[in-house]
Amino acid sequence: MKKIILIVLAMVFAFNIGMAQAKDYEITKKAGNLAVIVKIDKNPPVTGINKMDIAIKDAAGKDVTDAAVSIDYTMPPMPGMGAMNYKAKASLKGGHYLANLNFSMAGPWSVNIKINRGGKTQAVKLNVDIK
After folding, report:
1. Can you give the CATH number for the domain in which 115 is found?
2. Which of 46, 66, 90, 109 is least enclosed, having the fewest CB within 10 Å?
3. Number of domains in the chain
4. 110 belongs to a structural domain
5. Please, where are the H alpha helices in 28-130?
6. Residue 64 belongs to a domain
7. Which residue in 58, 67, 59 sits closest to 115, CA to CA?
8. What is the span of the domain harbouring residue 69?
9. Distance of alpha carbon 66 from alpha carbon 96, whole angstroms
10. Residue 89: CB partners within 8 Å, gap ≥ 6?
11. pTM above 0.90, yes or no
12. In what order do the strands lie in the sheet with 96-103?
């Protein structure tokens, strides 16, 4: 009976660890008076395509849906390699801005999210370590 209980507890523990690792990569930043919540579908982000979900909230906490959002992501130059620079446009869907980022190799990447709203551009910068 004790063996069965230990096996069940081990299975529950293993399942909970798997669920904890399945959570999206998420970070919240400020851009002026806007709160920008960025989620990437893989945690940690990996080489290849990663889906980015960007929620933008105004000072009152309401979704911002009247912005043009673009993303520049770069990997700095390394010995024997030049810098890698990519761009992506985010499209509005259901109150969030969605984009696919294709990281071509593992390592440190700089992600710059540009929010153009009412003729003004604000930006959020984050660093992501791609596995």
Report:
1. 2.60.40.3340
2. 66
3. 1
4. yes
5. none
6. yes
7. 67
8. 24-130
9. 11
10. 69, 70, 71, 99
11. no
12. 25-31, 34-40, 48-57, 96-103, 84-93, 68-75, 107-117, 120-130
Query: Which ranges in 1-131 belong to alpha helices (H)?
Result: 2-21
7 inside domain? no
Residue 103: name the closest of 78, 128, 68 by CA: 128
Domain membership of residue 45 (yes or no) is: yes
Cα 60 from Cα 40, distance rounded (Å): 25
Token reading at 100: 């696919």
Return the DSSP state at 80. T
Report the distance separating Cα 61 and Cα 81, nearest Å.
Answer: 43
33-47 residues labelled b (16+ CB within 10 A) or e (exposed): ebbbebbbeebebee
Q: Which residues, 6+ apart, have CB-to-CB distance to 103 below 8 Å? A: 45, 46, 47, 48, 50, 73, 75, 109, 130
For residue 78, the tally of other CB atoms under 10 A from its CB is 12
